[in-house]
Design goal:
mainly alpha; 198 residues; Four Helix Bundle (Hemerythrin (Met), subunit A); 7 helices
């Protein structure tokens, strides 16, 4: 196992720790968990930034790493979003958009791979990851301002939703739309794979 793979694996290991700290901490009256959750979220994002860079710099790009990296991204981010949903910060439908988008992308990668085509990362996918990462920190920041600093202009609810819901709304919409950017360039291949044989 090379160093880049270790960084990728670290996201899968850190993610459930984040879920435990965030969910149990959110339900408690203590505030120390906020800093722990923030630190774990930062480690997940740092790992995501470093693994590809390290692999290329050390000439350790592997076929396993190409497959494992997007899976680790999906697992870690889905775990973070599950934590938000279970805590009542985002509704089920919002989480399902993140979940089904990632599931569809995994299917598309398999379809492409079965035809000998590598599904290249697109700018929309990278932008989606950046928006989701920023939103994660935004959610934690809103909770910190509410609980630790008791900022009065941040209400407990805004238009029927937790204020952090609105932080997650933009990345949710972009995540949904980003699917189109992958489908259109690969529509001929998808159509070919769906055609009946014989």
């Amino acid at each position: 196992m090379n160093l880049a793979t270790v960084f990728t694996l670290s996201r899968v290991i850190i993610a459930p720790l984040f879920a435990y700290v965030f969910i149990s901490g959110y339900r408690s009256d203590t505030n120390g968990w906020i800093w722990i959750a923030l630190s774990l979220a930062a480690l997940i994002e740092i790992s995501d930034l470093l693994d590809g860079t390290i692999a290329r710099a050390r000439h350790e790009v592997t076929d396993f790493g190409k497959v494992f990296d997007p899976i680790a991204d999906s697992v870690s981010r889905q775990t973070v979003f599950i934590s938000f949903m279970v805590s009542g910060i985002i509704p089920l439908w919002m989480y399902l958009i993140f979940f089904y988008r990632d599931a569809f992308m995994q299917l598309l990668r398999i379809v492409c791979a079965s035809s000998g085509v590598v599904l290249a990362a697109r700018k929309s996918g990278k932008a989606k990851a950046v928006l989701q990462g920023i939103a994660t920190f935004g959610v934690i920041a809103v909770i910190a301002l509410q609980r630790m600093y008791q900022v009065k202009w941040i209400p407990a609810q805004f238009l029927g939703f937790h204020p952090a819901f609105w932080v997650m709304l933009l990345p949710t919409i972009y995540t949904l739309l980003s699917v189109i950017d992958y489908v259109i360039p690969n529509r001929a291949l998808i159509k070919k794979m769906m055609a009946a044989k014989g």
